[in-house]
Specification:
single chain; alpha/beta; Aspartate Aminotransferase, domain 2; 3-stranded antiparallel β-sheet; 16 helices; 14 strands; globular; binds ligand F0G
Length: 454
């Protein structure tokens, strides 16, 4: 059959409150035109993030009941640890309340002034945790990964020559080499198995540990199976094990590829580092057999990890993105290609060339989508990155709009609805106008700043 159906049926539903266009216009004005400050009840299709927004399965809800809330030595932890080790064979598994807590612990041990951390692209919270301790993070992505239209199959790859030069230049100031799979900030683009192995080899040749930020590891493995030569006959768990077998540790947000609403972990092989991490964990998160989580969360994650590597699920998951991208493409909407794992990215600079970067074309797309169809998505452009530490403002490298797709939450008709909204947006794109910021906080302005349409 050609039609790829959602490989699940629906047992519990969460009604969407329908709104009129007039209502949405008023809501947006009342929110000072910032979609982040809208109440989620006023949103029809929420594509702000794929993090913690997925639907749990009936087996995960059953696991929630199975959860054991003992302070120490809970069997929920045993199941959590076994499910992780089945895919990622690390010696020490340290539960945390989400991904950034794992990062905070890792960089509190490895980071500090004068230290340097390379990655393909650090996610915002990773960079934030590195910089908070006085260290610096550097992104060594291949050039193809920076071009929205380039069709390279692994646009999340690290540039190996740059890594080699980086390690020679920075020497002992590099406590570890990192790699984010998939590369969220670059459009959910995957990293090839070959690149993962090569990065590990270079890091180890320089005596540096190799740590993977594995938030979307299953989507990455699916792309390896689909796009990398010689990988087609392997199972997804087998590919996942291969990716992590060359690493010395990982950070993880279970809110992504573990189907949980909360959770994460730090995994390490080095016993001395793990001991330091556990000491820090007890101070900031909790006892080592629950971290920052309830026993029931540990069980939901353990079950989620058995479901995320299912090929029927991954085929449907990635096909949803491809389906939306193909149709947006035929409407003439510039999108980041090829399809990434968790999100569809719109190139707002190419779509709205009449709006200068500092009148925020990405924001104009986000606001128009909300007004047209109640869709909420995030600008990843000059609103997010434009304000410089010295107070000046400069355009971001790209003006993107991210539509992150929550896991197992929306159906094909929601996808068709999104496409229909874009058809209207395409028809009136020349009449869209830019925005002006009337108020902003000192840091992270995109969450709370106030806008005025121009
Ligand atoms: N690493 C990557 C690649 C991420 O995408 C995220 C979160 C984190 C680390 C941090 O994990 O949220 O559990 O603390 N990304 C979310 C997003 C927030 O919307 O892309 P966390």
């Amino acid at each position: 059959m050609k039609t790829i159906i959602e490989p699940f049926r629906i047992k519990a539903v969460e009604p969407i409150r329908m709104t009129t266009r007039k209502e949405r216009r008023e809501k947006l004005a009342a929110a000072n035109h910032n979609v982040f400050t809208l109440a989620s009840d006023d949103v029809l299709i929420d594509l702000l993030t794929d993090s913690g927004t997925g639907a749990m399965s009936s087996e995960q809800w059953a696991a929630i009941m199975r959860g054991d809330e003992s302070y120490a030595g809970s069997p929920s932890f045993e199941r959590f640890q076994a499910a992780i080790r089945n895919l990622m064979p690390f010696d020490h598994i340290i539960p945390t309340h989400q991904g950034r807590a794992a990062e905070a612990i890792l960089f509190s041990i490895l980071g500090g002034p004068g230290k340097n951390f390379p990655s393909n692209t650090h996610f915002d919270t990773t960079r934030g945790n590195i910089e908070a301790g006085g260290a610096r993070g550097h992104d060594l992505l291949i050039d193809e990964g920076k071009d929205p239209a380039n069709l390279h199959p692994f646009k999340g790859n690290m540039d190996l020559e740059k890594l080699e030069n980086y390690l020679q230049e920075h020497g002992d100031s590099v406590p570890c080499v990192m790699l984010t799979i998939t590369n969220n900030a670059g459009g959910g683009q995957p990293v090839s198995l070959e690149n993962i192995h090569a990065v590990a080899e270079i890091a180890h040749a320089h005596g540096r540990p190799f740590i993977i930020d594995g938030c979307r590891f299953a989507e990455n493995a699916w792309f390896i199976k689909q796009r990398e030569k010689g990988q087609q006959d392997r199972s997804i768990p087998d590919i996942v094990r291969d990716c992590f077998s060359v690493a010395d540790g990982m950070t993880m947000s279970a809110k992504k590829d573990a189907f949980a609403n909360i959770g994460g972990w730090l995994a390490l092989n080095d016993p001395e580092l793990a001991e330091l991490a556990r000491a820090r964990l007890i101070q900031t998160e909790g006892f080592p057999t629950y971290g920052g989580l309830a026993g029931r969360d540990l069980d939901a994650i353990a079950q989620g990890l058995t479901e995320i590597v299912d090929e029927d699920y991954l085929r449907y998951r990635i096909r949803t993105n491809e389906y939306i991208i193909e149709r947006l493409d035929s409407l003439g909407i510039p999108v980041v290609k090829p399809a990434g794992g968790h999100a569809v990215f719109i190139d707002a600079k190419a779509l709205l060339p009449h709006i200068p970067p500092l009148e925020y074309p990405g924001y104009s797309v986000a606001a128009a989508l909300y007004e047209i169809g109640g869709i909420r998505c995030a600008e990843i452009g000059s609103v997010m990155f434009g304000r410089q530490p010295d107070g000046s403002e400069k355009p971001a490298m790209m003006e993107l709009v991210r539509m992150a797709i929550p896991r197992r939450t929306y159906t094909q008709s929601h996808a068709d609805y999104i496409i229909e909204c874009f058809a209207e947006l395409a028809a009136k794109k020349d009449s869209l106008r830019g925005y002006r910021i009337t108020w902003e906080p000192k840091l992270m302005r995109h969450f709370t700043c106030k806008f005025e349409p121009l």
